[in-house]
Structures are given as C-alpha cells and as structure tokens.
Amino acid sequence: MTRPIAATRRRIPSARARRALAAVLVATIAMHAAGPPTPRPLLAQDGPALAMAGQLGGPVQAVAVDAAGQTFVGVGPRVIVFTMCGSEWPVERGRTAPLPGLVEDIQLRDGLAYVAAGVGGLVVLDARDPAGLRVLGRAPLEGVAAKVVLDGPRAFVAAGARGLRIVDVADPAAPREIGVYQAIVTDFTLVGTRAYVVARNLQQVDVSNPAAPRIERTLEDWSDAVDSIGPHVFVAISTAVPGESRRVGSLRVYDVTNTRRPAIVHTLPIGDQARALVRVGGHVLYQGASRLTVVAQAVPASLGPVLGAIGTPDSVQAVLPAGRTAYLAAGRAGLRAVADWPAPAAARERQVLDTLGSAESVAVADGFAYVEDEGSGNRVLVVDVRRPAEPRVVAAIPVGVDHGAMVADGGRLFVGAPDRTVRIFDVRDPAAPRPLAQVAMPRDPVTGREAPVWRLALDADWLYVANDEWLRVLDVADPAAPREVSRRRSSGGATDLAARDRRAYVLGPSTGTFQGRPSLQIIDVFRPDDPLQLGTHPVTGAQGGVQTDGSHVFVEGVQVVDVRNPERPVDAAALTLPGRNRASALAGTRLYLARTNADIGGSVRVVDVTTPSSPIAGPVIELVEGVRGIAVRDGHAFAAAQGLGLVVVRDAALPLPPTPAPTAIPTRVPGLSETTYLPLALRGPLGGVCR
User: What is the pLDDT of residues 388-412, one digit of tens each?
Assistant: First the structure.
C-alpha cells in the first residue's frame, strides 16, 4: 500500500498545537510479513480478512449550503445532508458511506458536491437526491486535499506540502489531474487567471496554463488566510510579537486589476492570528483563535470599522455565512452557528451538531461500547453496537479518562479519571448511567508526589490499578462500596497491566535490575494482605498494551514472555512490526493490536498466538489516523481511531452472535445536551423529533 505523503492538514495554520495531517480512512486490507528476532523465521500467512463493519463520528471540518437551503456537513469521513428545523436544529436527509479520506472542504455546483477528502483526494458526489448520496467520480491526489475551488471545467485543490493541484472536472465521473503548482499550500483564492496562494507568504501564481502554473511575485512575507471578490484580494497577515510565541494579525486589501502591479489599498489591525477569512456582502468575517471578528466594508477597496467580535471555540476551521446565520465548522467541537452575526453585540453562538470528535480509548461489554471522546470536553459516550453497522450514541457520561484507563463488565464501568480517582458507574441501563462510587489514589508514600491512574484491569470482582509506581487491588463485588484489599510497590513502576487468576502482570518504565529498561513485574496477590513479587523480566515498552492467557504474556507488538514459571520468566518469541503499539486486546488465540505509524496513520493488526512461541502476523486494516485503543467482543474489534471516531472491524475468523431485533431510537437521551446529534435521528429544541 502506498503511504500518503505528509502535508499540512488544514488551509489555515493555528497558533495552538493541532494534528499535522488529516485523519482519513483507507479501505485497504493487506497482509504484512513480519519476522521475530529469533533463530526461527516466521512469515505472514493468508488468513481471514478484516473488513470495516461500521463507523461513528469524527470532527466537523467542512460545511456548505445549497440553493434549496440544505446544509452539507463533513463529519469525519462522511458527508451528511441536513435541513434545519427552525434556523439551527438539523434534521438528517442523507449521508454517504465513509469516503476514502476525512472531509476537509465541500463545494456545491449543479447538483454535485466536490469534496476535498484529505489523502483521499478529490471526490465528486451526486447530491441531487440527498437520500441517495453516492460517489460519482474520484481523482486520487498526492498530499492532503484540504480546500477546493471550482472554476469552469477545473477544480483547484490545496494539498498542503504537495502543492496546488489542478483537476479537469469537465466529466465529473472521471476527474483527472492536469497540473500542479509545487509549494506548501494552506489556502488560496482565484481571480481570473491568477491564484493567490498562501504558502506562508502570499504568492501570485499564473494558472492560465494549468499544465505549467508559474509564480509571478510574492506579495506578503507571512500570510494566514485569503479570500477575494472581483479584483480585490483580502489577505490575513500576521507578525511575530518580540519575545513571545504568538503573532498578531491584520487584514489587508489588494487591488489586483493590474496583475503586474498589485496595489495595497487598505490595512486594518485586528489582533489575533487568522484561521479563516470570508468576504460576504458588505462584511468581512475574520476567524481568529477564539473569536469571530466582523468588519464592515462599505466599498470593496476599504475596510472598517470593526463592528465587534463574537466568542467561538478555539477549534474553528471554516466559516460559512448563510443569511444572518454563520456556520462554524469547529472540528472536534462539532458544527456551531452564530445567529445575527452582522450585529455582533446581539449575536449568539451555540452548538448545532455534536459528534464524537476524537476517540481515544474504548471498552466494550454487553453490546455497548464506552468511548473516550476528547472532542467536546472530557466525556465518555455510550454507544449501542449491537448492530455494528449502525452504531448509535445513547448516553454521555461527564468524566475524563486518563491514559486510556477504562474497563467495563457486568453492568459496571470503571474509569481512571484525570483527578487521580477511580470512578465507578452503574451501566446496567446504558441509556441512563449513574455514578456509584469513586476511590481517590493517595500520594506516593515514598516520594510524596501525586500518582495518576495509568491503566485498569478487571479479573472477576477484583479491579487492578496501575497507579504510577504502585499496584493497587480493589474489591468491587459491591461496586457502590469498593475497598482496597491489596497494594504493592512495583520495583519497575506501574504504567500498564493485565490480570488473571489473582496474578498481576505489571509493566513499568524502568527498574534498576535491568539498568533503566522497561520491565515486566509478576505479582501474586493470592494472599492479598501479603502480595508477593515472583519474577521480573525486561520488555520492549511499558505503555503499549499487555495481555495474558495465563501461561504467556504478550507485550506491546509483540514480545511473548513465557510465564509458566513465574519466578523465572523467559522470552518465547517476538515479532518486529512497523509503527508503535498503543493498546492490545486478546480474544482466544487472536491478539489485536492498536497501532500508530511513524509517519502518518495507523492500523488494527491481528497476530495469531495459537502457538505462543511462534506468533504469526495476520491480517491488518490500515487507517490513516492513529488507533489509540481497542476492544474485541462478539466477532468484532472496536477501534478508537481519533479523528475517525469509533471504527468497527469485522474479523471473519471469529463467530458472530445472533443479530438483535431493531430497537426504537429515543427522541430524548438522558445525559446528552439538547444539541446532541444522534446517527439516525435528531431532536428539536424541546426534545421532540423535528420533521
């Protein structure tokens, strides 16, 4: 599989740290060879393939409105079409299947939607019937397609480090690339036969011959965003603040009637650095880090005054005025709307569409997935996955998850929270979870420092806690009254663990025994008042997942340790796989690995451990977004794939449970805000379904 080339993800750079590349889904399944550093070579063998069964969520990075008032929203790798109930309540009319990339921009023309789909290139959709949205054509492009502008039979696409790509769309069913301007392009606008390109500086590029675009001149040393109307180009520029890391922004207007001598006609200081810039009617909308500034424009060649600023989330990536409402594609914060934006003093900003913005970890039990969402604050979303092709949110729990510390079983959910507590929830009714108890982790009695919860493992009614340098064991038979029954300081630290038959297998980042190398500590808690450390062994890492079948321990991806003699653990085998392991799950003799790649993306990989001393690298499904968490249940793997949200993967090697009968979708879901979007139904402002 050809790996996409790194490129700037969005057309508008941000002052805050953001992912450098778009999260996209690549529906490519391949078998990979791997060999362990042992005398016996191990080769990948053909086996049952992995296939995507379902997907839920993703950030909102694009929005467009057609002449009929239908709103097209990019949610992760999908385009979803809505009409508005009132002015701000969306009702779904149709959606695409997951596209081959994260939706970064949408342009509408003549019943078609032209989608900049990240590393999926340019995708053309037939959008004449929203209920039957379908892919009409696609042009694979190098780089990350982040913005598209249509100009007659051509589409111009900003592709980050792979430049400005020019595509012939005269036949929308067969778009083809015809030219490229090579630069690091994060934004651009077209005026006649010239493109004004943001490539850190602002460049004027002649594109009259699309096969050979050429730069004519540089207009600005540092630019952030650009738009145009007629012969006037509006550019957001910024300058560094001496001695600080921030930049201050201004808005500048060029008259480019004479392309040989573009002239500055106005400059207006704004303050913060721009992320997006839109000129509409008699106004310019300037989206900064956390506010939308509205600038009056009496005539095209002048600016001002500044009418005011409206507070917005710090994740806004695109602005679309539609009448007196301005829609904000706010990434992980979903789709937002600013009502009455021409009068900033009276304007109000609110969330219109809430999504699973970024999935970071996952636990699964009894047909429901519990997904850590870093999108809209700290929360865990409860997702019904009994029908894997149609995952749907049924509740939200307002709790953060630290280091992926989350397990579920038997109607109980256990979460290691950022405030160094273990939180326990009753999820017997998943649509109405309720808190039962919380246990605070004490300061380290030796060093006195605060000790976070790194990972959790559940074995029957005992909850094992990797508490920085301590192993702690809680009896949770009565989840409303948990009590600590055992604890022991680990000689190598405690940042990941597995547990089975009252024995804990604890990973730590260092130990003096192995000169600072990560280590596996085997601790017997058969006598909880006197836990006994049995053995220790050097390992490849301390936070990338650990599983056990009782006789062997599988560390990261993958070191196999024989622990049948726990006092003398020994290496049994190892596989060398590309990338980095983040988490793992064991189902019978199949080990599932959540991976991130060194350059971009990640994967769900399967390793056959039927014979632990000879693990075999099995099938893999590639995602061009890192996979941070994984759980396996009922013939499916559930991957927390960051910007791709929750990805459900079917493994043909595992048996399927009976398919449940369809269940009614509630019109009101406890624990969710009034603006929360459900995959199959939306509610109006009073909780009723708006049709």
Answer: 999 999 999 999 999 999 999 999 9
